[in-house]
Amino acid sequence: MILALALGRLGAGLCLAAPLASLLAESGVGQRAEGDRALFEGGGYLLLEVLRLQGPALAAALRGLLPVLGLGLLLTALGNAALLVALSTHGRLRSLGWLGPALARLPALCALGVGTALGQGLLLLIGAIVAGGAPEGLTNPRQGTALQLAAWLAALLAAGALGGWADIAKAALVRHESPLLAALARAWQALRNRPIFGLFGWVPYALPFVLAAFGVAWLTGVVDVGRSGAWRLVVVFGLHQLVVVVAVACRAAWFARALRAVCAVP
Q1: Rounded to a whole number, what is the distance in angstroms from the first to the last CA of the chain?
Q2: Which of 90, 92, 134, 193 is the most buried (most CB within 10 A)?
Q3: With contact defined as beta carbons under 8 Å apart, do 56 and 227 qualify?
Q4: CB proximity list for 23: less than 8 A, separation 6 or greater
Q5: Tens digits of per-residue pLDDT, 113-171?
Q6: Under a CB-based contact definition with an 8 Å cutoff, are residues 178 and 186 in contact?
Q7: Where are the domains of the chain?
Q8: pLDDT (tens digit, 9 = 90+) per residue, 60-77?
Q9: For 191-196, which contacts have Cβ atoms below 8 Å and span 24 or more sequence positions?
Q10: How far is CA 210 from CA 63, 75, 93, 265, in A?
């Protein structure tokens, strides 16, 4: 069931990406010899120009996709709730026995997820502003590029740290069956007890997923669905499902570790 929720979230993501990708394809960028890579060459000038020209159409598409985005966020929260409840259950888990407790925690998990996403978006926006305001470094281009990379790296680390702490709060929310504010207080206490784990404890569990994603991307290129053979489509589809399984397994392992951590917090 948890895998089905993950597949549903993946489907919602594809529904979000398809219209936006089609608008970019209409710009003719993909017909160039270098493909989509041209969007990011020369400091991303072509990407900015495409966004300027397709801006109204992209905005209209995004407004129409808001319900799909909401569905994706809901499926994400429900999948997290199902994982946390299943991992918190002692003994054998009955079929759909997790549904009631998961639905009971769903509103708080949704609120926490939306707040985390907004906070991460704000951090990335600040990083983009700082990177854009960095001196161009005409006399020393490497220094200007290094400052921009440092700004982006700091923003990404801060966003990842916020996400890690939010996962600790989700674990406290389910493990102690506490209200949202009480769960945040327990997560804060866990952060004070173990700062590195509270912010970046998820990193070892994310690495297998990253390796699996890169491996599947490489294998997909080797299989090459552009050539004849229905078996190629079957293999690529199976590889994509393998990524979903690895993602859920890594997420479950991290949540199990987070649940053990919040058990030590009264």
Answers
A1: 32
A2: 134
A3: no
A4: 54, 57, 58, 61
A5: 889 989 998 998 888 888 777 665 545 666 767 777 888 899 999 999 999 999 999 99
A6: yes
A7: 2-27+36-263
A8: 666 666 676 677 777 778
A9: 191/165, 193/264, 193/265, 194/261
A10: 31, 22, 30, 31
